[in-house]
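User:
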Amino acid sequence: MSCVQCVKSLGAGVRFCPRCGRSVHFVRNSYGPSRATQPRSSWRSRLPSRFSGTWAGTGIQAARMGPRVGAAVFDIVVLGLLAFIANSVIPLVGPLVASWLYFAIPECSRWQGSIGKRIFSIKVVDANGVRLRFGRASGRFACRFLSSLPLGFGYALAWFNPARQTLHDFLASTRVVAR
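Assistant: Predicted structure:
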């Protein structure tokens, strides 16, 4: 069998393609078009256990709230300095572009997170545990505004769900996990 997206040969029992990260539920055999070979698991089986924060069957550990808050505070300080400099160069638009690039570029790089996330040993991945691409990282940044609108309710969601996902994580299908 081979992956539909990157055509890499896959062994038996593989859940995700090691090259592109695509789910192996849909594979191509040499006899015909793509077909479903495994039953799809329910969305509840992919949620982390309420007590451990680990996604079932993946070993991916959700980031704890302490490092997430610490990384956010650190990033706010750094971003405040960058926004001040960017505002003196290009008023109004400069701070927005600087903050977008501050989050989007590192999240799709090998770091998989901003400077604060790197310092606090957490990273951002997509729903399959794979590094984000620039488009998804940019979409995640755009959704941050929705998280902060009703008095920061979108950020408070991380305290009340077992996956510790904020509103912008839900909308962008991303997760913040421990390194």
